[in-house]
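Marked as duplicate of an earlier ticket. Keeping the data here for the record.
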Amino acid sequence: MTVTSGDGEDREVPFSVTVARPDGAEVVIAVAGEIDLTTSEDLKESFEDALEPAPGRLVVDLEGVEFCDSTGLATLVRINDRCSTQGVDLSFLPSPTIRRLASKTGLSTLLPLAGS
């Protein structure tokens, strides 16, 4: 993804998101790169698409995430809240970066992180 910085320069932001439905009951969203102000909306849109129709289980694979800012963390909390409201079983597979951020911010008690 290419974004324009404050000085008018374009820069490439490493980010990818893929959605897979290995069976009708489970959806896997795999995210890699950076989750920040410039990429959070793309993640949110992919998540919204994955919930139509609502699966029984959603796995958000964050093992490829190298950076996440507060906007990205807020997006993960929104995903958690939406799944809770819709009765979707949610599991995050965190990268070391996400696990460290969740621990430091107290979100490790809120977000269903695999291996916790």
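See parent ticket for discussion. The chain has a mean pLDDT of 90.
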